[in-house]
Amino acid sequence: MFRTLQRGPQDRRGWLGISGRLLLLLLAGAGLRPLAAADPPRVRVLTYNIHHGEGADGKVDLPRLAAVISRCAPDVVALQEVDVGTRRAHGVDQAAELGRLTGLHAVFGQAMDVDGGQYGEALLSRWPLEAVEVHALPCDEQSEPRCVVAARVVPPDRPAFVFAGTHLEHARAPLRLCQAGKVSSKLAPAPAPRVIVAGDFNDTPPSPTLLVLRRHWTDASDGQWQPTWPAHEPRDTLDYVLYRPATAWRVVEVQVIQEPIASDHRPLLAVLEMLTTP
Known about the structure:
Mean pLDDT: 89
Distance between the termini: 67 Å
CATH superfamily of the largest domain: Endonuclease/exonuclease/phosphatase
Strand order of the largest sheet: 3-4-2-1-12-11
Low-confidence stretches: 1-16
Radius of gyration: 23 Å
Shape: globular
Number of helices: 5
């Protein structure tokens, strides 16, 4: 005659404890670790001056640029020198096309009219972009108009944040310094406590431009700057990812992507971890 053994609660707890230990041993043996339930979410931020799509070989090649962007698996992207409907871009809306090619949401911020179309900044995001605003930066008759494009990013599984992209004056340091001072004031009333601004600031880390910006922002590359321009043999650090408040983010990784052909800049990737709500 057979009897069915009945396990009590204490026996079940012992069996579950043994099973859990076995699982941990198997994961360790495979070089894996169990996911922590409370791992802080991360945001992969890419900034890329795309030179209106034209690479070092003189070809306007948006699929090539889209492939570079996609390889970085970004969550949000700030693009500079973006054309919409210009003759040199063959009438293409580059912001919309790069969004289509990468499968990301896209918005465009016009800085100026040029070559039969528009020229400015674009944002790409794998999450919806809301409350898009374009802020003109100071300029004069001797300089190209510049702007900041900003949007509220709304992930479904983490806090919302504001993401902005900009491209500062390239030739005249006093104007560039003035524009840098305006970036913070333009983004001050942002509708979310966390803000990231990324772009081509056209100046080096010890410059007055970056010193002004670092009064209000934390530089993701701080102390570990890498050159981003010119793409074929970089010698100057011109591209940055900044964030605030400092207590809301932790830098996990920053790297310049080794891409010498697709544009005249190399893209910069920063991985930021979201900390507790500031």
